[in-house]
Amino acid sequence: MLTMDSHRPMPPGTVLQEELHVHEPSSGRGRRHGTSRSEPFDRWFRYPAGFASDYASLLLHQLQLPDAGLVVDPFTGSGVTGTAARRAGHSFFGVEAHPLIAELAALKFGRPIGDPSGLLADARRLADQVATTQASVDFGGEAELTVRSFDPNTLAVLVKLRDSIRAQPDHEWHLHLKWALLATLRDVASVRVGWPYQRPGSQRQPTFTDPISRFLQRVAWISEDIRDLGEIQPGLVSRVKQGDSREVANWSEIGEGAAHGCVTSPPYLNNFDYADATRLELYFWGEVTSWSQMCSEVRSDMLTATTQQTSVSAARDARAALQEYGEVGSLVGELADQLQKERGNRSRGKEYDRVLPDYFVAIARILENLSTVLAPGAPTVLLVGDSAPYGVYVDTPGLIAKLGTQLGFSLESDVILRHRGQRWTGNATRHNLQLAERSVLLRRN
Q: Which residues have a Cβ under 8 Å from the Cβ of 179 and sit 6 or more positions away?
């Protein structure tokens, strides 16, 4: 039986069959994209960029890292790898560019001083105060997206809860209450606010009609997860650094060769805007107040994976930087040329040709950083999918594997976890190929 800890290289695209069916936790069968809605800590907020916690646990188990080893993740997201590493008895260090999501991930690894039952008690007192307050709420200072996403009565309650929480920034449970409220927003919205698009012009029946009871339910989950975590094994430390994982400085807290393994899921080349996906939460809390501010303060450090992040100058610089990476640089350049040609055949073509060079140069920089912090022989597993914009096939996992072999790693396996993209099979101009989500295992030389 093939296993991920085997030292025999597997052919690219090999299907990981028996091993997944034997060891994959039953809770994950049939799970959709993103973090779980029900697993402890994952359920705090279902950030769509996260991968399933059962995959993370499965991969950590198969890598057979040393006891109390250090696991790293350059695309931490909401901390799925980190919480899985903690359950497995490992320390964790992650880097996440999205400031709001980095805050959430870091929150999961903090240890409050007080009893978590106090969190639920404080939330109930807060909810009672809001429910009995008769003062009207002025929506004049709210973003248009916020106002259009809720009926007036629901929005009034949400704003009162928010303002009460924001008024106590030094409260021990401030951030836990904040995230319970932010995670409530999409539950009680009266318009379509599913991932990745917020569509305030499209009405829907709210999943939950009482914002206070839903808020309290989410607080109860957070309190329960903290209580059930128990004592952390002595010596284990979990940290999250907010910043750009391409930057060497963001890895300075880890000594050279100090990490024992990496489990991560980079953004896919599927034109998904991870910053825009959280616009409702960003606007509601006041983290940003405009699209331009979101671009400059949230999206700026994020890896380029969507056409909305691109520019002519950045693409030009990335094309020049590709020359550092030999064969892979040439392959990416050729793909970019094909995409540019396809874009020219359309009246309003998207700039996929500008995304590719920037994306793969960023991946190369991150692999270079990983090669520094990982110990010799340490594994790196990347969960990532391929894509085919305008029918031009981009073997993202394969290209990442080639980059790795140029940057101090050896390729140990490239296996298919699941097939994807079936909904595009009838559209020859988009994803008219059999796409897959794959697990690429590299090992530090």
A: 44, 45, 104, 107, 222
Give, as one character, the DSSP assignment of residue 278. Answer: G
**How far, in Å, CA of 144 to CA of 125, rounded?**
30
Percentage of residues in the chain with pLDDT exceeding 70? 89
> pLDDT-derived band of residue 232, with 50, 70 and 90 as boundaries?
confident
Preceding amide of 196 cis, omega within 30:
yes
* Residue in 38, 98, 42, 55 with CA at minimum distance from that of residue 74: 98
Local structure of 96: helix, strand or coil = strand
Q: 26: how many CB neighbours lie within 10 A of its CB?
A: 7
> Two tokens at 234?
């002595």
pLDDT at residue number 426: 55
Helix (H, G, I), strand (E, B) or coil at 220: helix
Residues 6+ apart with CB under 8 A from 103: 175, 242
Please give the backbone phi and psi of residue 31, each rounded to the nearest 5 degrees, phi first. -65, 145
**8 Å CB contact between 55 and 383:** yes
Q: How far is CA 136 from CA 77, 155, 284, 292, 421, in A?
A: 37, 11, 18, 31, 48
Q: Round to whole Å and give the CA distance between 322 and 317.
A: 9
At 133, the pLDDT band (50, 70, 90 cuts) reads confident
Contact 294, 300 (CB under 8 A): no
Q: State the pLDDT at residue 427.
A: 55
Tell me which of 76-90, 189-203, 386-400 is least confident.
189-203
Is the confidence at residue 17, as pLDDT, over 90? no
| Alpha carbon distance 247, 259 (integer Å) | 17
Going along 49-124, which residue ranges are E strands? 70-73, 91-96
* Whole-model pTM over 0.85: yes
Q: How many CB atoms lie within 10 A of CB 326?
A: 12
Extended beta strands in 159-304, E state: 191-192, 199-203, 238-242, 261-264
d(Cα 300, Cα 295) in Å, to the nearest integer? 6
Q: What's the DSSP call for residue 375? A: P
HSE (side-chain half, CA atoms, 13 Å) at 19: 19
128 DSSP 8-state letter: H
Distance CA 85, CA 106 (A): 14
